[in-house]
Structures are given as C-alpha cells and as structure tokens.
Design brief:
Layout (H helix, E strand, L loop, with lengths): L1 E5 L6 E2 L6 E4 L11 E2 L2 E2 L8 E5 L1 H4 L6 E9 L2 E4 L6 H4 L10 E4 L10 E10 L13 E5 L24 E6 L14 E7 L2 H7 L13 E5 L15 E4 L2 E8 L10 E5 H8 L4
Length: 276
C-alpha cells in the first residue's frame, strides 16, 4: 500500500517505524497520514521556513486545521506537495476549500502564536503524475508577505547538497506512532541523502509508484528508523542550509530498504518557475 504521505505536519516525529505504503497525503477530510520517524523536538523559531498548511473547515481546529507541511521559498510563495491539494486529500475539490491557509511561526499547533496567512492562489505542477508520484509539487501564493527571514534558499541543479551521503533533516508535525497520536510541536529527523540507485531498486515501478530520479530525491538511513510519515507531506527536506526536497511518498515509514522519496526541488523550481 502506498505511503502517499500527506505528510501533513500535524504531529511529532515518530520513534517507531510505520506500516504500509500510503500516499503522502491523507485520503479525505480526516487526519493526514504522515509522521516524522526517529526524530526529536525542535523550535520553529530556529527553522521559520517550515510552515503548516491548514484548513479548519476540512480538518477541524484541534491542530489549527493542519494537514500538510510546506516551505517558504520567497516572501509570498510556499511550496508543498501537489497531492496535498488534491480532492483525494481535501475531501473536496480545491476550489471548494474556502479557508486554505499557511501557518507560520507556530511551534505548538494548538496555540495562536505566529500568523495565519490566507492562500490567495494555488499552482499545481502541470506535469504531476499521481500514478508514479512524479512532479509532486504545488506553489501556494500568499495574500500577505512573510518576513524575509522566513525564506530558505532552494538548491539548484547540480548543488552539492544533493550528493549521496550528505546529512539532511526532514521536518514536520506528524503522527508519532502511526496510530493517530500527533505531537504538540514541530519535530525533525536527521537522515542522509541516498544514491538514486537505492531508490530505483526499492521502487522500480508498481501500484505504489515509481522512482524517477529527474524529479525525485531519496533520503533516509540504510537500516531504516528515521523517516517522514503520516502528517508530514509537503514538508521540507533540508541539507547544507538549502531546501532540497519536499516529503512526497514511500513504502511504510522508516522501514529498512524502503527509504523516503521526496520531490526534487531543482526540478520543482524549474517547472513552476519559482525564484527565491
């Protein structure tokens, strides 16, 4: 089963491995399905470019309506996963969601700290393929600019941050157990960028998806245990101070031999013509 992780950042990083392969976005207006596995608590003030994508109308108000994550790439643009804004995840067509917002500067999603910014428009990658998961990215345009200090640089094509073996971190508010127990604050897990061949072997093509190196990035640990999961979809993967990926999909959470698959930012920025 595909772990199409709506890696909605709703909880903490889980310390236990998840189960099946799920689309990294939650199916319908319920809790989204991703968690950061093997992580620890961090402060959003130290990582202000990590934001929650939210809709109280679709996901309730317990965690401010958070259902996915995102990354601030310029003052009025947040990148998230394309599957996060699909009808399968939202439980309704995007044009029927009237309260789509980005929540910035809020560590504990149960509080009112930080700011909630209305999303004025959404541009989904026209090349997104929901069968292979290729091109899983959407750009959210904000009605009000965020501070410049919230912006994270994007790693361009050929950047050293994409090299196999590079330490990286994935961020989110996902389920900590895979059973719907979401953490109160932002968490992060330390992983490594893996060679494309690792993911090509793990995901050669099935109903779960197919690893496409040109549009995807592979990260995790050879023995598993650290990964994104339910509630983390669309959240950032960062290496060397630059955004290199967005939580997209994978098989289970933190499983040996099934690393997490991320949208490759160099391809996403080119396709959507996004500039930092």
């Amino acid at each position: 089963m595909r772990r199409h992780i709506v890696r909605a950042w709703t909880g903490a990083l889980s310390l236990a491995a998840g189960a099946a392969v799920l689309p990294l976005a939650a199916p319908g207006p319920a809790a989204a399905d991703s968690v950061v596995i093997g992580g620890s608590a961090v402060q959003v003030s130290d990582h202000p470019w990590v934001v929650a994508v939210a809709s109280r109308d679709r996901f309730g108000g317990t965690r401010s309506g958070q259902f996915c994550g995102g990354a601030v790439v310029n003052r009025t643009t947040v990148l998230t996963a394309a599957h996060c804004v699909s009808a399968d995840v939202l439980g309704a067509p995007l044009n029927e969601v009237r309260d789509l917002k980005v929540i910035a500067g809020r560590n504990d999603l149960r509080t009112s700290e930080g700011s909630e910014v209305t999303v004025s428009s959404v541009k989904t990658n026209p090349e997104y393929n929901s069968s292979t998961n290729s091109g899983d990215v959407a750009a959210l345009t904000l009605a009000t600019p965020l501070p410049e200090s919230y912006v994270i640089p994007m790693a361009g094509q050929g950047d050293a941050a994409y090299r196999a073996g590079t330490p990286a971190a994935v961020y989110g508010w996902g389920d900590t157990t895979g059973g719907g127990q979401y953490a109160r604050s932002l968490h992060a897990a330390q992983v490594h960028v893996l060679a494309d061949t690792v993911c090509e072997e793990a995901y050669p093509g099935s109903s779960d998806g197919k690893y496409v190196a040109a549009t995807m990035l592979c990260a995790g640990e050879p023995m598993g245990g650290k990964d994104a999961c339910q509630g983390d979809s669309g959240g950032p993967l960062v290496a060397q101070g630059r955004l290199i990926g967005l939580v997209s999909w994978g098989s289970g959470c933190g499983r040996p031999g099934n690393p997490g698959v991320y949208t490759r930012i160099s391809d996403a920025a080119k396709v959507l013509r996004i500039h930092g």
